[in-house]
Fold each of these.
Amino acid sequence: MHSDSFSIGVVGAGFSGALLAVHLLHRCRPGDRVYLIEKRAGFGRGLAYSTVNQNHLLNVRAGNMSAFQDRPDHFVEWLRRQRSESSDPPVDSDSFVSRRLYGTYVRSLLCDELWSGGKGTNLYLVPDQGVALHEAPDGVSLVVAGGRCYRLDAVVFAAGNMPPDRNEGAYFGNPWDPAAIAGIPKHSPVLLIGTGLTMVDIVLSLLDAQHRGPIRAISRRGLLPQVHRTARPLDLAAWDLPRTTSITRLAHWVRSRVREAAADGWDWRSVVDGLRPHLQDLWRRLSLEERRRFLRHLRPWWDVHRHRMAPVVAEQIQAAMTRGQLSIGACRVVDMAPSDSQVRITLRPRHGDVETAEYARVINCSGPETDYRACDDPLINDLLRRGFARPDPLGLGLQVSEQGALLSSDGKASSRLFALGPVTRGSFWEIVAVPDIRMHCARLAAYLETSVRERNRAEPSVRRQRGIISSPPEERLANAVPPLLRPTAKGA
Ligand SMILES: Cc1cc2nc3c(=O)[nH]c(=O)nc-3n(C[C@H](O)[C@H](O)[C@H](O)COP(=O)(O)OP(=O)(O)OC[C@H]3O[C@@H](n4cnc5c(N)ncnc54)[C@H](O)[C@@H]3O)c2cc1C
């Protein structure tokens, strides 16, 4: 082993953790170790790409879903290779393919590193849940639920989208729990709380399960996501944007830019997509109070324009609305009493009188839990309790530095603990989708390699044992590949 070899742990193997591991493996030399720790069955899918429903499509065109920013055609080329061996219809960069298939792509990236890249001896897959972390000057100890403790140079927290976890009787707080849509009497009414893309997924799942009863979806404003249309992003440079840090003035600017663009024959989508590369900078410039105002007043409108439905999905939603099976409305939940067979719920419509009704199932579709102060995850609780991390004050994950280092309770950036992906939403805002996460993965891998190697060279005496320091022999990937990362059947 070289004096500067590294051992880096990545907690969470969804898109963020898996892609970071791929970038780290690219940089590995013999003796380097990347530990990828995942609590759910299967590495590389995460919450977003684990769905088994083939009608759950990506909400981004294939042409924007390459895992590598500098190889924009990577995903489309992978898709073409898959399709050339099958009778499925051809795809191009404008296609919206299934999320299941995208998960298979992410897994194939890890497989490529192992089989073609020869990095099998550098990767350690740990099918377990990270439950505690301790940062000391000479390294980080990561404890997993199975009881093992790993001693590492650095750990990246890529735990992604936390499903809300409160289910009670016929009320499902977690819409991604497969039980959420199981066992509903076919003709009974269902209520969905939330009208965004999660609601859209659940409606599709209910329709696929031949649900015939009424489906009502509610949110405070009752806004439905807009639909994708072919529209090239406007080429906006940083100096085209106003220097203001007022969210009201920014909103005025966006509206007037949309009007100007429309006068020149451009679609509003071109303005929204053209703004996207600048959103992290814009967000970081805003004060806490301005961010709060955005969340309170503008977010619902921004979200439905920014997170759009694939046209074929929109057609199914529209058809369900036209035949009167699906209704979307603006309501607040006043009271809810779940029992095993139904939920009695009182709603206050935005325009109208308070109403009480019974639903066979109520499913929360308001999106992942982002307020880590309220969540039940042992690792997050441990990080917060020990002061190794601090929650975003607006309930948007954990606070990080520009580099992605976790900020401790006293605001100091860690040199060994990092976070990646949606966990860092409070610091970057536009960091929940592939086109943004992939940039951070590449950047963080480069930073970690350089900084860890430099430190290990400078302080060889500090480097004590690395790897597993307690309990039975670890699963080397070479032995563990078949069950953990077996390439799946096409599209499976
Ligand atoms: C339903 C849904 C659909 C989406 N669709 C798209 C899309 O079409 N296009 C797009 O660009 N973006 C989409 N997104 C955005 C999504 O956030 C990103 O694309 C990306 O999947 C985020 O990956 P992640 O690895 O950060 O998070 P996740 O996918 O949530 O993965 C995190 C992983 O960490 C694991 N984990 C958490 N805690 C621990 C622990 N303590 N120990 C071990 N493992 C742990 C979890 O089990 C999970 O597998 C979607 C998001 C959702 C929720």
Note: The chain has three domains: 7-56+98-162+370-485, 167-226+308-364, 238-306.
Amino acid sequence: MRKAFLPFSPPLIGEAEIAEVADTLRSDWITTGPKVKRFESEFAQAVGAPSALAVSSCTAALEVALAALKISPGDSVITTAMTFCSTVHAIERSGATPVLVDIEPDTLNLDPARVRDTIGELTRQSHSRRVRAIIPVHLYGHPCDMDAFFDIASAHDCAIIEDAAHALPAVYKGRTIGSMADTAPVSTLTCFSFYATKNMTTAEGGMLTGASELIDDARIWALHGMSRDAWKRYSSEGSWGYDVVCPGFKCNMTDIQAALGLHQLQRLSAFHQRRSEIARRYTEAFGVFDEFTTPVERSWAGHAWHLYVLRLNLHELATTRDQFITELQRRKIGTSVHFIPVHLLSYYRDKYRYSPDDFPTANREFQRIVSLPCYPRMSDEDVADVIQAVTEVVHANRRRKQVAVQASAACT
Ligand SMILES: Cc1ncc(COP(=O)(O)O)c(C=O)c1O
């Protein structure tokens, strides 16, 4: 067994990031300034986006996206039951009503067929609020079926906001996630996360990408609703005047964060290669067990492998998901669960009177998912330790073996 605990997902920060942060701290400009501008432009280029706005988190990107699209009380926004709470919090705080929809049984992504049914039903109800946007979440880094969502959004005249917190770099039918705003038939904005565990990090941080006019509006929403940012007001060419045109948020990114982001972005492709390699080794090792379902990767998908989520075939196992996690922890392997479906969280459960089976696929899959460590800092030995620990736990908990043992005991 390992000596040291293997943490679930620590960041990988190099000397170049540290030097760039120090350089920023020694400069006269530590908040939103030249490094943020450079980071926005290099990020937009990396994902093929027309324009990018750096913000303080993906949550902020979602909030600003909803505001820029003028989504407000009286509107509805559709999203998945299987996501982190902040996707739905952003809708809730905009004043619009979140409408949760169940997931596909294989990718666990928002199910377009169910979205089509739900939006059709809401449109038929004459008293219903208007659906203004759909938020597909590229769960774990596997892209959603975007063409299906674009079709639905075009038919119902609503926008698409991609929650791409996990999807850097992910590819849908040859198109990088973040690059579709120019070709999409409806307004499309994409929200990325640079939280510490994500595929690249600025400690906390996020990016909103989309068409230039929408990003220009979002930029105003992200900084108090002011018509000119501080860099424009306080730099040598700037002047002090500004107007306030809306009750904006305060969620701009700082140059300290951008200093980290500039170097992390350069390493993203190497990080992604390592994540993909670890995922491949896991699938090779776990795919042979009847007790597991390994992650799917559709033929058209380029997976970002933010999370490697193993599913336990509970009917084949004499254990629960929670006991499985405890046994891995005992073997010094950190794991997690992504996510507790939103309709099971007390705020949403109570406010919208949800019961667990309102979203049966999300509810069922939640009970059998385990996220395994998968990050570039892992050594080959770390990966082998995870494989060994999971293999030991499954061997110790096989139902078939137990049935065989019981049967042979009954015969003696
Ligand atoms: C699917 C999803 N959306 C949004 C977020 C929010 O990201 P942030 O922490 O950058 O606000 C997360 C965070 O983990 C997430 O997993």
Note: The chain has two domains: 15-263, 269-411.
